[in-house]
Structures are given as C-alpha cells and as structure tokens.
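in:
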C-alpha cells in the first residue's frame, strides 16, 4: 500500500502521511487506490503539490492527492515500510485540477498518476528558461528618512530620485533598464548612488526567459476596429448566458459560419474580466490559435496562449503567468483546459469551447480524454458556465441541448435538456450564405474525355472554370483535399500481376511523397507507422513498370500550377500547400495565414486544417476536391463528419462584401449529408442522424466503450480480446450489448495485430461500473497491450 522498497529504520513514524499519485502506470481499482502512502517530513505538504519520492530503488515524481493522520493511514500497514517524501519539485497544480484528475482517471480508465502527468507540460516540470533576475524597488522609507539619506547627495541624484518617486507604485519591482528609461535618466550612475544610499533596494526573483507567446499571433488578420453592435440573436445569447454567471450551466451556441459567435464570446468574457475572474477559451488545434488569440489580445490586456507550437521556455512562461494570476484570458488547444487557474488568486469565470464538434479535442493516447467533456466537468467543479460553440455541433451536444435528459435514478426523462440551446441563424454582416454547387465527379471525368483529355485530373471542368473566374475577379480561393502526398495507390501495371505496394508493418497501402531533394525524386511512406522506403522502379513480383494512382495535395498542387499559369500561380509564391508535410511548425502556419491575409497567396490548398475557423473577407471560392474521403470510412459517424467538413470549409467563402461560391466534387452527388450541406441545413441532418442512431442503439442514444487489444502475435491479441469480452458479458448481462471480439478495421499497425471489443449501454454510470469492476480484477488496463477508449470518436 505504501512507498514500499525499503525500511523506515525501525522507528515509529510520527507526524502526517500523504498520498502521492506517482507519474507512472501504477493503478488498479479506484483512482484513489492508485496513490501510494509516504511520510511527510517536510511537515506542510498540501494537496496539489508536486514532489519527489522514492519508488523502490528509483526516484520518481508525483502529486500529493491526499493528506491524513497517522492513525487512520497505518491500519494494516507495516509502519517500517513507509518512506519519506524527498522534497518539493516544480509542477504543482490547483486543488480543483487534482479533483478533476481523479474523475478523469475513473471515467477514462487510466492510472491517476498518468492523468496528473499529462496535465502539466514537461517545460514546467523541467523549469525550462527559469533564471534569477535582479529587480529594483523603492525602499520603505518616510519622506523625512529619504531626505536625510539624500541630504549630501549631488543635485543630479536628487533629481533622479524625484523622477523615480513619481512613478506608479504598482510598477515596482522593476528592471533597471525600465527605471532608467521611464525616469528619463542618462545612465545608471545616479541609480547606483541611490542604491548605495539605501533609498533604492535590489530584489532577486526567478523569472522565465522567452518572448511573449501571444505576440506571434497578433499580426495575423489585423483588425483594430471597435466591437461591432450585436444583433438581436447575439444579444439574446449574451444575456441568457450571462444570467448563469456564478453557477454551473452548459450552453450550446449554434451559429451558422460567420454568424458572430466569437463576438459573443468576447462580450461574455469582458463581463467575466470585469468581475476580476479568468476565462479559458479552447480551440481544437494549433491551426485556429493565431487568429483567435489575436482577436482576444486586441480586446483584452492580459492574454496567455497555451499550445504545442510554443517553445519550451514560452510554454513555461505562459503557464507561470496563469498560475500567478497575471492573466485574464487563456487561449489554447485541448490541454489548455488544464490551465492552473487558482481559485484563491482570481478564479475561473467561464470556459468557451470553440468548434466543439472537432475531433481534435479527443486525445488519441493515454489518457484518452475529450477536451470538451473535461471542460464541462471542470466548469461543474468550479461552478461556472461553459459555452460550446459550433456551426455544426456534434450530435452529442445537439442531443443534450434538444432532448429531455433522463431523470436521476429514473428511466423517465426530465422536462428539460441537459444544456441550453442558443441559435444564430444569420451572418453577423447580413451577407448571404455562400451558394453551394454539387458536381458529379464521374460525370466531370466523362466531360473531360469528350474534350479529348483522358488524364486523371483532380480538378473537374466546373471547378477549374470557377477558379479561373475567381482569380480574374481578384478574389482568393481555398481548396480542400483531405489526403496528403502525391499518390495513394502504387501497383503493378501488368493486368496479370496483382502486386500492390503495402506497408510491411501495417494493414495499409503506402503513399508516394515527392521530394526534389531525394535522388529518385521522392519516397513512399506509411501514414500510420511512418516507415519510409524508396519507390521501386519495377514490380518486385514480375518486373513490370510500377504505376502511382490516386491523388493527394502534392498532385493537386502540380495540377493547379499548370492549369493557372496565366494567372501567375506559382508554388510557394501565390499558391501555398498547407498540410502536415509542408507545415512543420506553428511558425510555418502563422506565416501562411499572414501571407494569405495580406493577399500574397491567392490559392490556399490544404487538408482539413484549413476547414474551420479562418475568416478572410476576400475568399470568393471554396472548392472541395473530393467530398467522399470521410463518407467512405467504416465509422457510424461518417455522415455527420461529411456534413461537418463541407459546411465548415464552405463557410470560409463569401465573408466579405462579395458573395461566395462553394463547389463540392463528389462521386455520390445524391448523398444525403452532401445534399443537406448544400442547403446549409444542419437541423435536418442532426434530427435524421439522431433518429438513425436511436434505431441502431448508437451514441449519443447510448454510451460506448471500445477496448483494443494489441500484440505482435495475432493469436495472443485475439485471445486477450475474447477474455475481456467474456468478462464484460458476464458482468453486464442484459444491461449492455457486448459485441464479439473482431478485427479492427486497421488490423495491424506498427507490427501489432489489433482486435476490438465494443460495449454499448444506456448510461455512462453503467459503463463505468463495469469497466471499474474489470479494472479492479486486473483485466482492464491502459497499457502497451490494451487501449481503453471511453466515448470513442474514431473506430479505425
């Protein structure tokens, strides 16, 4: 039970004991049982402090999750085996985050120590960029005491003191350079004399070096205009949400693209800041951070930015600013939900989750949490409202806002939904929604052949003509193709040979990526295990030529440059490809947005990272090169995601004075989600999908858990999955549906075979009870051989 692995020396422990959740994969049973017991010889350790502890013969780190007296903690434990905490270390958390971690550990079936480890950035734990700084302050002296000390001082020193004394009290302690500049001193000589005479004093404090993280975002899409006047729908939403300040409430802000959701966020946060509290604004990925952070930085004075694109020193600095209560607004991606806002400093007033539907909020590795749901839980713990915003809400959020909730302990629904729905049905500028034209890819290729062009082109004649028209009119174009690389299917050209180039570690075909710097002009890569190899010149089976089929963003880039050379469209200059291959860092992305905002880039081509959040008034045309990439996946959310992708990227068009056009290329033009996206009809799509989910007992009408068993030996993986499935079936009985263990859609990834067991039941409480029972028996664990995914959003 305790910090085992050594003797206490035979003495009876005195003083307090603490429970420490070690940042290791230790855990079985309930989250509180994941913690180990240690002796507090420091004497005043508190919940949330990060400490160093002995673990066997090793040193380990963890967070204090409980403090208790000796009598209550030693029952059944040999007192000689209780080791002592070695000392405090960096990375402590507020108490509410510890409570949140305990909930996450239980809900997501993850060791408590691993959850706590994920909450604090590595840069904070390592104290990256921390250094000691010497600052100056005015000595605490009366006017008479100052006069006495300066009685025989030169006139220049007295004048220097008069200038320093006139500076605002809250400006100190201050850097010497700042004091010299603000006081109008010529050099440091007078300042040194004031220090020598004791009217100024040196103060040593630790600071984190590195520039302010928010500055890099402020130049993107410059907008210094005053706050716009809210329309009636925006006012109604603001007033209704503001009425719940100081209480826990969930609000769904459903607004069409360009309806002014961000302005609603800004107004609400302005009220929170006036109350002396802090706001958290979450965006699903780094791609949305620069514009969002820029808008908040221009409206509010103290904004912190937290995302993976910061340098280690910047991340530490921003984290420290938040923990000290120096900021009013925290903007960041998924992990910013763990911003260390201490209630005793400022307190949290509101959480905003923008683009709440986005899959980027779901962590795909331990702990597999959903940022939106964790934000709701944190708001509940701190009794503040949370606002979920989207033009295409997730069906989970839509159901919570439109369907009466089940009454506590009853199968009967209550009279009210779990959250409140606020709708923004028109664009804030009163500009019309863009016209959407759906074109049949098969028919478009037939037209090409009739024109004498038999090549496999990614751009159909309709989209090509629309791009030409938009460029001629001086507009900008956004093109979406949610596939990277140049070619996605590499096979033998011989009809008699069936060779296809596949990854030898994954059940996946390899993708060809062009690279001018390589001798053969490119390589083939697996997008799952990231293994690479040279593209073979000839088929290794029969010696025939190899052909590369299909197309990704690299092929589209070449085609666009050729097709619009007359418009001076040149790769890297007026045409920019934005995907995971071309955009390696936050700096690359910020630069791309800045150039597009300034009009240097006329065509922006990219994957789904350009599909949401961007607001550029000169975008006249949006083209979706293949709308079927999401609908063809073996996932019950395929229709929902197809609609979201079309609606989100299409919403980038026509935000300025000129109307916008969206062209959707699809091999299935009669697809229901495509047709409804063309009409901007989310409500019909949501209601139809919810009805279908209820019919087939799928989320959000039920709650789902997915267990994936992995092993290099297929038989071992399958056997483990079957045992887990059998145990779950035995536990749940008729209370849940436990599907038989089957191959995952991607059977093998990185050399490991994968088999899944999927559980669906009526409530989260029922699901959690079953998972907790198996966890206590050691059958259900999150480790290298098993992944437990509660509320999964991807079924591959």
């Amino acid at each position: 039970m305790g910090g085992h692995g050594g003797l206490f020396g035979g003495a009876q422990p005195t003083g307090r004991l603490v429970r420490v959740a070690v940042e290791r994969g230790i855990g079985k049973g309930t989250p509180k049982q994941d913690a180990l017991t240690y002796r507090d010889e420091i004497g005043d350790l508190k919940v949330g402090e990060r400490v160093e502890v002995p673990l066997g013969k090793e040193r380990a780190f963890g967070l204090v999750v409980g403090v208790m007296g000796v009598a209550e903690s030693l029952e059944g434990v040999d007192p000689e085996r209780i080791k002592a905490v070695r000392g405090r270390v960096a990375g402590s958390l507020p108490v509410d985050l510890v409570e949140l971690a305990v909930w996450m550990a239980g809900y997501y079936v993850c060791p408590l120590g691993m959850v706590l480890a994920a909450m604090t950035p590595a840069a904070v734990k390592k104290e990256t960029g921390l250094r000691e700084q010497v600052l100056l302050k005015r000595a605490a002296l009366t006017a008479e005491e100052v006069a006495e000390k300066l009685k025989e001082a030169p006139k220049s020193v007295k004048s220097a003191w008069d200038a320093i004394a006139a500076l605002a009290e809250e400006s100190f302690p201050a850097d010497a350079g700042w004091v010299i500049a603000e006081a109008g001193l010529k050099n440091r000589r007078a300042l040194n004399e004031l220090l020598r005479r004791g009217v100024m004093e040196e103060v040593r404090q630790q600071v984190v070096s590195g520039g302010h993280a928010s500055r890099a975002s402020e130049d993107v899409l410059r907008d210094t205009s005053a706050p716009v006047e809210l329309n009636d729908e925006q006012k109604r939403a603001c007033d209704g949400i503001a009425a719940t300040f100081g209480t826990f409430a969930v609000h769904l802000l459903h607004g069409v693209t360009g309806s002014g959701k961000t302005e609603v966020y800004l107004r609400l946060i302005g009220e929170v800041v006036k109350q002396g509290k802090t706001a958290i604004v979450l965006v699903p990925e780094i791609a949305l951070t620069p514009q969002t952070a820029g808008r908040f930085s221009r409206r509010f004075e103290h904004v912190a930015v937290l995302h993976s694109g910061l340098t280690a020193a910047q991340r530490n600095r921003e984290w420290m600013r938040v923990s000290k209560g120096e900021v009013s607004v925290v903007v960041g991606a998924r992990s910013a939900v763990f911003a260390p806002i201490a209630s005793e400093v400022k307190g949290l007033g509101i959480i905003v989750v923008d683009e709440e539907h986005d899959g980027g909020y779901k962590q795909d590795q331990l702990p597999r949490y959903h940022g939106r749901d964790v934000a709701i839980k944190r708001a509940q713990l701190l009794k503040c409202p949370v606002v979920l915003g989207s033009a295409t809400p997730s069906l989970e959020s839509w159901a919570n806002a439109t369907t009466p909730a089940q009454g506590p302990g009853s199968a009967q629904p209550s009279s009210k939904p779990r959250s409140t729905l606020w709708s923004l049905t028109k664009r804030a500028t009163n500009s019309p929604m863009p016209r959407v034209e759906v074109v049949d890819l098969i028919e478009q290729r037939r037209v090409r052949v009739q024109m004498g062009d038999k090549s496999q082109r990614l751009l159909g004649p309709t989209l090509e003509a629309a791009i030409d028209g938009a460029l001629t009119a001086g507009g900008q174009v956004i093109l979406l193709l949610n596939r990277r690389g140049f070619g996605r299917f590499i096979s033998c050209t011989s009809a008699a040979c069936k060779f296809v180039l596949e990854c030898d570690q994954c059940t996946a075909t390899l993708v060809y990526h062009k690279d001018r710097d390589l001798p053969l002009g490119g390589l083939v890569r697996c997008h799952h295990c990231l293994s690479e190899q040279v593209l073979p010149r000839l088929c290794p089976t029969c010696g025939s030529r190899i052909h590369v089929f299909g197309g990704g963003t690299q092929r589209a880039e070449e085609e666009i440059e050729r097709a619009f050379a007359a418009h001076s469209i040149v790769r890297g200059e007026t045409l920019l490809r934005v995907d995971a291959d071309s955009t390696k860092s936050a700096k690359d992305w910020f630069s791309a947005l800045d150039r597009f905002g300034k009009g240097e880039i006329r065509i922006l081509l990219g994957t789904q990272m350009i599909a949401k959040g961007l607001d550029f008034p000169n975008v006249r045309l949006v083209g979706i090169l293949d709308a079927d990439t999401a609908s063809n996946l073996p996932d019950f959310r395929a229709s929902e995601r197809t609609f979201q992708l079309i609606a989100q990227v299409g919403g980038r068009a026509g935000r300025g004075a000129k109307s916008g056009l969206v062209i959707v290329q699809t091999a299935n033009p009669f697809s229901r989600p495509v047709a409804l996206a063309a009409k901007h009809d989310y409500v019909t799509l949501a209601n139809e999908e919810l009805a279908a989910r209820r019919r087939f007992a799928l989320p959000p009408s039920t709650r789902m858990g997915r267990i994936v068993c992995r092993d290099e030996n297929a038989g071992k993986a399958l056997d483990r999955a079957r045992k887990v499935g059998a145990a779950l079936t035995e536990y749940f009985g008729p209370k849940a549906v436990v599907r038989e263990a089957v191959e995952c859609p991607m059977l093998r990834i990185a050399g490991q075979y994968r088999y899944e067991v999927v559980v669906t039941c009526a409530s989260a409480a029922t699901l959690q009870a079953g998972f907790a029972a198996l966890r206590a028996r050691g059958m259900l664990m999150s480790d290298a051989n098993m992944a437990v995914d509660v509320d999964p959003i991807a079924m591959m």
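note: The longest helix spans residues 714-732.
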